[in-house]
Design goal:
The protein is an alpha/beta fold. The chain folds into two domains: 131 residues, Response regulator (Rossmann fold); 97 residues, Orthogonal Bundle (Arc Repressor Mutant, subunit A), CATH 1.10.10.10. The chain is built from nine helices and 13 strands. The strands form four sheets. The chain has a five-stranded parallel β-sheet, sandwiched between helices. Helix 2 runs parallel beside helix 3. The protein is elongated and about 55 Å long.
């Protein structure tokens, strides 16, 4: 079984891709910060490294430089920064490939397999593109659908434009249906690496903006409901209002 080190701070993307890679027969070790990625790299033996460029405590480019001092293990960057300078820099410092978010699962798996094959470390099962596309992990509740790997959100089939913070907040709620989450729990899960400047008032603003996009009547929400004195929950009851 081939081992992959995956350094990515987006929890939803990390969970979705981890599921897909494990189905391919790979052993996965995950990190959400550059510091954690460096520690796991030093402790383990990997056949491939997947690196997000923008990490909460630094750049994946720096981690790639560190890896290249001692190893030629293939490195693929995952990044939302599709500017030519970022791509060139990543390849110049020793990256083997890059893929820009959002991307299709079948394309991602194909490029992972190709990197391992070229390096002589190919060990995953061959992927059927159509089958994997159908197996793409998603969240779905009360007309809201989140396609995790593509980071696409729809309401009753209509696409929604969410900010990064709104998207993470929505995924957190939908991954914890009918569970009351306190403001502290929400902030800790979403901004645990740099949450010093995020307070309850800011969270209230994020929730209000998200409700405007996903609720038919934001003034009487039935998806993200307020539980007075406790926090918020994603209601699957359909019409449960507080």
């Amino acid at each position: 079984m081939k081992r992959i080190l995956f350094v990515e701070d987006d929890r939803s993307l990390l969970q979705g891709l981890s599921f897909a890679l494990k189905k391919q027969g790979y052993a996965l070790t995950a990190a959400r910060t550059r510091e954690e990625g460096e520690r796991l790299w030093a402790e383990g033996d990997y056949d491939l490294v997947l690196l997000d460029v923008a990490l909460p405590d630094g750049s994946g480019l720096e981690l790639c430089r560190k890896i290249r001092r001692t190893s030629r293990v293939p490195v693929m960057f995952l990044t939302a920064a599709d500017e030519e300078t970022d791509i060139i820099m990543g390849l110049d410092i020793g990256g083997d490939d890059y893929i820009t978010k959002p991307f299709k699962l079948a394309v991602f798996l194909s490029r992972v397999n190709a990197l391992l094959r070229r390096s002589g470390n190919f060990g995953g099962e061959s992927a059927d593109a159509d089958a994997e596309a159908e197996a793409e992990p998603e969240l779905s509740s009360d007309g809201i659908r989140v396609r995790l790997l593509r980071q696409e959100v729809t309401r009753d089939g209509e696409p929604l434009e969410l900010t990064a913070s709104e998207y993470k907040l929505l995924c957190l709620f939908m991954q914890n249906p009918d569970i009351v989450l306190s403001p502290e729990q929400i902030l800790g899960r979403l901004w645990d690496c740099d949450g010093n400047y995020i307070d309850n008032s800011t969270l209230t603003v994020y929730i209000r903006r998200l409700r405007k996009k996903i609720e038919e009547d934001p003034g009487a929400p039935r998806r993200i409901v307020t539980i007075r004195g406790m926090g918020y929950k994603w209601s699957t009851a359909g019409g449960d209002r507080q």
